[in-house]
Fold each of these.
Amino acid sequence: MHPSLICCICLDDMTNDTAIVALPCGHCFGEQCIEECLLSGSTKCPLCQKNYRHIHVRTLYLPLEEDCDKAYKEKYNELMKKTNALTKHYEVLKDLCDMTAANAPIISRVNELVNQMANVQEELKGKATTDKTVNPVVEPKHRKKGKLCKLFAGMKL
């Protein structure tokens, strides 16, 4: 709600149904009061005494209080919808962060195991190439499986 505008000539409130005019000096009055001043022959602003002519008087169009309330309510509702949508997105992201934090030890352990397996595979490849150079006979598959079983048996999951 905007503060009341009072005409300095008649000291009445300039309500929504009163036309408000501005003089070139920037002072505002009720349109009817300025018209009466002009009809009486005065061409000076009642406040600062600067000269003006009728063609310099400008009507001001201020929004009505009801229009402002409606526009503010619409803007408020729009902002509330955006706020609710952002709150939902925040809650989803927070849940994902919480789940990630809770699973961090598991993820770390899985990464360790993957690295261990990669190291073991490199070791096995290295042994296979050295074994082939010394003894070109390929070991039976069941023996390789035995080594891997022993390797996994020693790991803690």
Amino acid sequence: MKKSTKVWSSAAAAAALIAVPGCSGGSGGDGAASGGGDPLVVGMLMAFSGPTAVEGAEAVNGCLPAEAAINEAGGVLGRTIECEAFDTKGTASDSVPAARQMLSTTDNLFAVIGPSTAEAVAAAPVLDEASQVMFSPAGDGRFDRTELDHYYRLITSDSVGAQAMALHSQREGFQNVALVFVSGASAQANIPPLEEALGGLGVGVTEAMTIQPEQPSYRTEVARLMQNRPSAIIFEADAVTAGTFLTELNQAGGGDIPVVTNTLATTGEWQQAAAAAYGGDENLARALQVVVRYAQEGGPGTETFVESLQSLEGQEGIDIPSFRDSAYARAAYDGVVVAGLAATKTDSVEPETYNEAIPDILAAGDGKTVVNSYADGVEALKNGEDIQYVGANGEYRLNEFHNVIGAFAYYNWDPATSALTLTDQLPADELEALASGQR
């Protein structure tokens, strides 16, 4: 994935500004014994450089608002929170050294945001072996049934996202579709569950094509696709690749074919490239269909996150327009808040100890007090109440594998505002049935 130069420049600056000097030693001691001690570090083990650097920006725009909210409420057991960036460069080979460096040199490591899709298979077991709680945005389907005790995914699996695009295609009445996905672990992981879901829903596939990123031309691939003109194209590619491919698709007479895509299309650079490829917003609106995890509008947990994010306006790394509605930034925020509440509940900042409280804090239950902010959660816990945290992304219904399915929605392009606009939510029961293999 690529983000606009403006956003990435801010995120890079933030990574430098928020870095906490590493110290030898492991995580900090028990909270009751060390209240008011050194800051607790939230490690952002994400890509801050390379083609998936937008993921680091998402982490920054979730972690920093959580840091601000927690510290304003008095910290975790009297200790402040600080976010520190550890650059995986978006590769498995770089993620393991980054994870080991984080574990060995960061005093008071409290929780981790990450690793993401390209790095999680390699890096997540390293963190779990160290009993380190992590909140990962990795879409890799291999984590759908993970046995890692300290792994939490508050974002839906890529396989569910792929199934959502398949369900949308059936609901739109597409008889056959072409699949065009850029090479790379994240995009390629979508193809098997997508093909399986499309087949189960009775939608044919005319072509399943993998394209290399950022090539000077895709005319050969476009010509092959147009030989069996599909009802729609299910598409995933970064902004540069999308700009070139969609331009040549239009030149070949395919500008009226609906293009169904996913979260990459929520970034400003991607949208600008697509609008240019279609010759303007009006033409783009006739083709673009974006199916992504539904980021609820309103609700006290969402409003609390947005207020905290907005309070940081002007700070390096903060990009309010790009990330206030990002389910990924919100999940990072909620992860840090939940870790803080779990530490408060167990009276310990040790991840191995507070980990046991996380599922209960997210679970609904009779007699529980619903809280939507860290401050309210701490107050309720101090009053001896049993709590359920409903946060920036709403309610998290964790399954036994620490995963959520979540809600998905269809957005189209509004030429009047040059922005995505919510069109419809996908039926949650149908998506859950598809994801569980019961449809």
